[in-house]
Structures are given as C-alpha cells and as structure tokens.
Give the backbone structure.
Amino acid sequence: MTALFPSMTGKPLANDTVEEREIDRELCLFDANNSENPVHILNSGAALVWYLCDGEHEMEGIASQLAITFAESYDQVLTDVRETVHQLQSLGLVDMK
C-alpha cells in the first residue's frame, strides 16, 4: 500500500499556518496561504486524523490508536489514514516530518 503513496514516509505534521474551528460537529480548516481554496471541512474521521498529525505519530501509530478506539480492523484503518493524510498533504495542509 505504501507504493501508492511514495512520499508518505515519516510523521505527518499539520501546517502551522492552518487555522481550525469546530462548527456543528465538523472541523473547518482555513489556509490563508491558499487563495484559490482556503477553506476545508473535515468529517469526524478526518478530523481525528488531523488532530494526530502532530509530528509525533507515524501513520501506523495513528491507525493503531484509531483502530483500538473504534474496534475496527487495523489494516482498513491504516488504509483510511494513509488516504486521509495523502489528501491533506496534497491540499498543503500537512507536511511529512
């Protein structure tokens, strides 16, 4: 699965220029550096991944934590985490440390 996301090694770290606000159980991210698409709304699952993009957790650790919390399959959660981090990275919201 890693081959699908070759630049996804290391620990994801949320870009410190992104502001976050919780609105009606969703997490809204505002990226002032992105004039074309500055606002992003994350569902609850993506928001949990976002909160763990602190530069301390590798994706496997994030997946392990979420799989235990929600009693879900680790392999499926890892796939979801990788996809979510990849999307956040492609939007410029997360860097790999």
In short: DSSP finds three helices and five strands in the chain.
